User: Fold these one by one.
Assistant:
Number 1:
Amino acid sequence: MTTAEVDGYGVRSGYTFGYYRQLSPTWLRLVALSRGVPFPAGETLRYFELGFGQGVSLNVHAAANPGEYWGNDYNPEHVAFARQMAEASGANIHLLGDSFEQLAERRDLPQFDVIVAHGIWSWIADGTREAVLRFLDERLAPGGLLYISYNALPGAASGIAVQRLLHAVTASMDSSLSEGERFDLARGYLSNVAEEPGNHFDGYPKARERLDRILGGKSPYLLHEYTVASWRPELLCEVSAQMKQIGLEFCGSAYLDPQRIVTLGAEVNEADLVLEETLRDFRLDRSFRSDLFVRAPLGSARLATVGELNDQVIALTAVPDEVDVSPADPEAQGIADQVRTLLEKLESHTPSRLRIGELLRSGGEATGDRQDLAALCVALNNGFTHPVAASDCAASRTSSERLDDFLCATLFREKQKQLRVSPAIGSAANLSALDEELIAYANQPQELMSRLAIREQGKQKISAVQTLKYAANFACLVKIYQTLALTRFNKI
Ligand SMILES: C[S@@+](CC[C@H](N)C(=O)[O-])C[C@H]1O[C@@H](n2cnc3c(N)ncnc32)[C@H](O)[C@@H]1O
């Protein structure tokens, strides 16, 4: 019997080193507030990440936020790397090497205010899901929030057959081959089949698109996605029914949604919300969902948090001139100009942060304008802006700087864009590295321009207009670093 058949997952190779800002407490707080759901505000926030993978997200959140951070993953390679980061930052973090089954049996754990499970639910066997549900049932505190992401139907249906085939083929291969070698062989078979006339992929264009991604993609992610023994996409209404059984109520997607913001006033009925969202998944052919659940039958008693929402401060996390408000983003259709205006408004402030209430005012009047609200959601959902943490304590500053040093020296050493750990947003932003020599001239446009021109002309001829643009973008980047409390530039 292969390992995959024993526990329903079975992939033992290391996973990717991804960071997911939607798991950060500051993000989850904003999404909860936007739905009229209060964010748990005990003395110490207790946070748990199920199956943390390499542990980059968990470590960033533990370093950049106050609170107690816990997580588990049964892959020893993952736990070892997560420990290295934790030792570097000195953050308050507990890393467990338990399986989900072992975790559910433990009696020595506290209750948690927030539990997150990213990329776990669809990839584990039924028995393991039951263990996860037992853990959630026992360990999510009253009023606590669950973030859960999963492969969603109908969109993920295009992957079911190909995933099962890849699993079956890799599981039947000689175990002296590595997981990566088996996967590459299996991809080779698929690629040959896909060229034969009348093959399966000819009749299913979405399955062919997926196949192209499988054939062209990198294997650590794909191995974990496509060779696990259990890969079960579900409809949102099916996932929410399972959560309902343990007393968790669906609050909506874990992203900002202009149609579901409490300021618009509509009262929410959970059953209607689940149905509407499930139908929307069909409209948009969604293949992946990230959702928020709360342990409390709030029903119609949702709190009106408009004031709190308007008071939430938002920081600029990308240079407006460099962002691509992509026409491919369905949320951004027709409002690219509003998104840019909003980003420029933030940029014009020093530091580049504003309360939502101020950001949504044009010409001093509250607009209540749906397009403005939609632009704010696009800017947040795409990572151009980020909610600012409620409290920025000195300990988070020190641990963030230490983790930042570690990540810059290891994972991001060669990268021009780096994840920078920020205690100001309790999260990490993907930013271009700053050029240390030019920092001193960020507020002297003429000097900055001439230095940039001298530097850039060595590489290529650039016009005065381009130089001006580079200088403005560079000055904006410096401001973003300052806004995010990334004040130690000397290590860049
Ligand atoms: C697809 S990866 C996602 C990792 C991480 N959450 C992320 O998104 O980067 C799934 C993770 O679940 C872990 N895992 C799978 N089955 C498990 C089990 N039964 N107990 C504990 N961890 C498990 C794997 O080791 C792997 O790190």
Number 2:
Amino acid sequence: MFSGTSRTGLEARLVARPKGLPGPGDFEIIEVAVPEPAVGHVLVRNLFMSLEPAMLMLIAGASDLPMPRYEIGEVMYGAAIGEVVASADPSLGTGDLVMHRFGWREYAVAQAGLFHRVDRDAYPTPSIHLGSGLVAYVGLMDAAELRPGDTVFVSSAAGATGTMAGQIARLKGASRVIGSTGSPGKAAHLTGELGFDAAFDYHDGPIVDRLREIAPEGIDVYFDNVGGEHLRAAIEVMSPHGRIALCGSLDRQSTGRPDDGPGDLLSVMGKRLTMRGFTVSDHRDRAPEFSTQFRTWLSEGAIVYDETVIDGLANAPQALLDLVKGAYTGKTVVRFGT
Ligand SMILES: NC(=O)c1ccc[n+]([C@@H]2O[C@H](COP(=O)([O-])OP(=O)(O)OC[C@H]3O[C@@H](n4cnc5c(N)ncnc54)[C@H](OP(=O)(O)O)[C@@H]3O)[C@@H](O)[C@H]2O)c1
């Protein structure tokens, strides 16, 4: 039996459904009593949670996502990693490091089966378990069917998925990797630390013109994190039989409005292009293979893991907005207090 304690923790709730992007008043962060786990449950103290652009669509109540929207008055959810601090189930013990979906709160109490134990020694920091490498990997390998020698273009290349997609494309045999991003500084980061062959600021004139200059040979694979003008431009510049992996919709997520679409699809037919949407949850069977490769690449220094850490749950709502405004590079995570 477990007795009650006076432990409390912060949690973030949605208090209104905004039209367009949310403001700070659409969230409340409150301190609540943390119960001890009932039989079959565990209590987890969160260490890090993931911030993701898709959370803005869950706040807006979008119905076309493969996950439930956030409900007003309820704690929001999202990927997080934490440490078991009390267990009433034999499958998990105190001190275990676990991944789960109970983000946006300092403590999570739930059935043990909803927590997935991960290797404490896998990475230099537990936050790397929250990274977007698997998304990038399956987008390239399964959706885009990457081949050695391909010229690969990645949009939002300095973001969580983009930083991984560009580097993994290179490691998997791409001959040229090109990225687009939102500032000259981020473009320099891509061609410097992250080893992209070329990068451009998408504010710097029509994207189709930048792509034609940078990829006169055409593009074989486009990893689309953005939609809108990026997708239309890529379709124009794709080589015959090119493959587009539709990963994200940052154009829409950053404005709160649907983007204006892929345009005339005549070139998709004429050039026999493939456009394939994917969601990482359909490809979880790739996780062990990816994890083995990723750990090897990290230990050999073959890949750079780029991450921005925001301290404290209270700062998370503003950080979510800043994320899609381009304030950060790499994977953005919130670190909980110790
Ligand atoms: N299919 C799946 O299974 C799956 C899984 C995870 C994520 N996703 C989606 O993939 C996309 C990328 O996710 P992520 O977590 O890696 O996000 P991210 O790229 O880290 O997102 C933040 C970045 O978005 C960029 N951005 C914002 N508005 C933009 C616009 N209008 N045009 C171009 N770039 C813009 C900003 O970079 P700049 O400074 O460069 O503008 C910002 O740094 C998201 O749409 C996400 O929902 C899909």
